[in-house]
Amino acid sequence: MKIRTRNQRRGRRGVALLYSVMAAFSAAGMVTVLLALSHSSDRVSGVQRYGTQARFLSEGAIEAAKKEIQTAVANWRVMPTTGSITLDGRTSTYTIAPTGFTSTITDEAGIQTLVTAYEVQAVSNVQGHQAVARRILNAEATPLFQFAVFYTDDLEVMPGPDMTLSGRVHSNRDMYLGSNSTLTMNTNYVRAVGNVYRNRKDDPSQSPGNVRIRQWVANPWDASEPLSYVSMNSRSQMNNLGVATTSGYDSRFTTGFDAGGDGSFTDPGDWLPWGPGAIEYWQQPDGYTNGAGHTVRTSDQGATEAVTPNIGSISMFETDAAGDHVWNAATNTYVACAPGTGTHKKGYYHSQAGLSIVTKADGTWRAYDANGVDVSTAVASAVTVVDNAMYDARQANNTTTRIRVTQIDVAALGATGVFPANGLIYAAHYGEGTGTAAKGIRLTNGAELPGRLTVVSEDPIYVKGDYNTVNKKGAAVIADAVNLLSNAWNDTKTRGRLPTASNTTYNLAMISGNQGSSVGNYNGGLENLPRFHENWSGRACTIRGAFVNTWQSRYATGAWVYGGDRYTAPNRNWSYETAYNSVANLPPYTPMAVSARDVVSW
User: Fold this and answer.
1) With contact defined as beta carbons under 8 Å apart, do 326 and 393 qualify?
2) What is the helix (H) or strand (E) element at residue 278, kind and residue range?
3) Concatenated DSSP letters for 452-505?
4) Which SS3 state, helix, strand or coil, does residue 6 take?
5) 27 Cβ partners below 8 Å, 6+ apart?
6) 288 CB neighbour count, 10 Å cutoff
């Protein structure tokens, strides 16, 4: 028998204790290593996370700078050199610098675009992690009147009789298309930055009539190009083909229709989903050899916003903390003061006008040339202020109220020798009101213009009789609302009475305010963007120009209503003025629609 001594037992306990201590140290070391690895992993993960956040913030700042460039160019502002944006509580800064590159590009149809390149740099910091993003982009400015139709809000087209649109058609939002008969779009450019809907906006259950859109060709103005149309089918037209849809072949048709169930969408009876379908169906016709393109594009196909001037550009005066005018309560007018000490400044068109005609609340008026010299006496034979001049049933809204107009006799103005050398007239009323308190500017005797002419007002403008029909020149009206009075108009209209119009021609481009549509309330659509006030049934209203809506009316706020003592529709003989394809023929001070295209990022 082997006997263990006390010392032996004590030694073994010491070895065991040593092993235990060593194991504890080993475990602690492993824990330390694991903790270190965990902390290191967390640090790496944090670096990646914060770095990614900083990068995304910088890219967001670049996008903000892009919009700033578009807005500055569209509104004739000095381009800012720096700026900042706050996203998720973090501020990123950016710089904008011109690269010195400018050019003018012309497409196959003759549309001209002015291109200016800018370099943008943005810097963001997140938890000490910095990211820098850089981008070269082109600001592409296309004259607004080189579009046949341009809307910054939803574009609605729902004419009663047949209607043909030629020229570029663009909406910065959604597009609603339909017709009680047939709407024909003879163009290679239909763009909606939102969606295209084949139904009425005010009544989505309705998708009436026919809509046909031309397949893409390089130059739709060339008569030798093939003329091939593809229908944008309505809901009932699709149902007749055995395809159930919500509103027809439009942006809601997202799943397509595979008649054979084989997933190909290429068999007879198949319909591609809207995204690829719009590209496929309205591309160049089979066998076409002059290029390739796509007439219809929406947000699904990469259509991008084009920024336009804001409504402040047509204001008589805009708020400006460092302005050069202040309000004088004694005279109820704005008066000039030292630059930087005022509260207001002239709106863009007022500041640029070669001739300004301003009517005060008491009915007196003054006229000024481009240098601010009073020329009222010189133009007195051409300007008349008439109280209770005319009945605008849309503004009167079932009252008997007649409106005051400042009337400008265009022919008489040309004979005064004070016709503006730069072709820009600005006219407006102090104390302009809404509804029954609205006033107006009326242009008469404008069959032959003394020169290219743009007339701008923050008020509604009424164009009376044939306009720019003799020795046609570039002409435009830009206003809170554009109203067309026929050759037969004589101010005899009263409440409950609808005088008869006569055939009248207007060769002009227009920018007009409008009202929005909602369910159950139609704003009249493109077909009623120019406002009518007579019984036009069976009479022709001929317009050669461009139709632009970039703001909601602030003063001419009467709702659209058809019939009664408001108006009845003319035979619309409307088309784009192809002479505007050349910048030299555009109306003076044509504003720009400005898009931005990325060139390179790093």
Assistant:
1) no
2) helix 274-281
3) SEEEE-SSEEEEES-BS-SS---EEEEESEEEEE-TT--S---TT--PBP--EE
4) helix
5) none
6) 17
Distances (CA, A) of 529 to 268, 479, 480, 488, 554: 41, 12, 11, 21, 15
What confidence tier does 107 reach under pLDDT thresholds 50, 70, 90? confident
Residue 323: DSSP 8-state:
E
Using CA atoms, how far residue 199 sits from 134, 137, 236, 251, 377, in Å, is: 43, 37, 11, 11, 55
Same domain, 536 and 387: yes
Q: How confident is the model at residue 32 (pLDDT cuts 50, 70, 90)?
A: very low
Does 376 share its domain with 295?
A: no
- Residue 363: helix, strand or coil by DSSP? coil
Q: List pLDDT tens digits, range 348-377.
A: 999 999 999 999 999 999 999 999 999 999
Strand, helix or coil at 29? helix
Question: What is the DSSP annotation of 30-83?
Answer: HHHHHHHHHHHHHHHHHHHHHHHHHHHHHHHHHHHHHHHHHHHHHTTPPPPSEE
Q: Is 27 strand, coil or helix?
A: helix
pTM (predicted TM-score): 0.89
Same domain? For 427 and 555 the reply is: yes
The model's pLDDT over 299-358, given as tens digits with 9 standing for 90+, comes to 888 899 999 999 999 999 999 999 999 999 999 999 999 999 999 999 999 999 999 999
Cα-based angle 429, 72, 327 (whole degrees, multiple of 5): 30
536 located within any domain = yes
Q: Domain of 266? A: 167-306
392 and 532 fall within a common domain: yes
Question: Which DSSP category does 348 fall into?
Answer: H
Residue that the structure tokens 């947000």 belong to: 299
**Number of folded domains in the chain?**
4
Q: Does any domain span residue 55?
A: yes
Same domain, 211 and 93: no
Band (pLDDT 50/70/90 cuts) for residue 46 is: low
Considering only CA atoms, which of 477, 590, 597 is closest in space to residue 74?
590
Q: From CA 230, how far away is CA 232, in angstroms rounded?
A: 7
Final residue in a domain of this structure, among 326, 347, 368? 347
Q: What share of the chain is helix, strand, coil (3-state, %, to 5)?
A: 20, 35, 45
Q: Which residues partner with 338 through β-bridges?
A: none
112 assigned to some structural domain:
yes
**Extended beta strands in 187-237, E state:** 190-192, 196-197, 210-214, 229-231
- Tell me which of 306, 336, 367 is where a domain ends: 306
DSSP characters for 388-417? Answer: EEE--HHHHTTS---EEEEEEEHHHHHHTT
- Kindly list the distances between the CA atom of residue 238 and the CA atoms of 159, 184, 208, 233, 382, in Å, as whole numbers in the listed order: 21, 18, 12, 6, 58
The verdict on 229 and 130 lying in the same domain is: no
DSSP state, residue 239: H
Residues 463 and 561 in one domain: yes
The rounded distance, in Å, linking the Cα atoms of 231 and 277 is: 12
Question: Is the predicted pLDDT of residue 104 greater than 50, yes or no?
Answer: yes
Is the residue at 195 inside a domain?
A: yes
Do 300 and 374 fall into the same domain? no
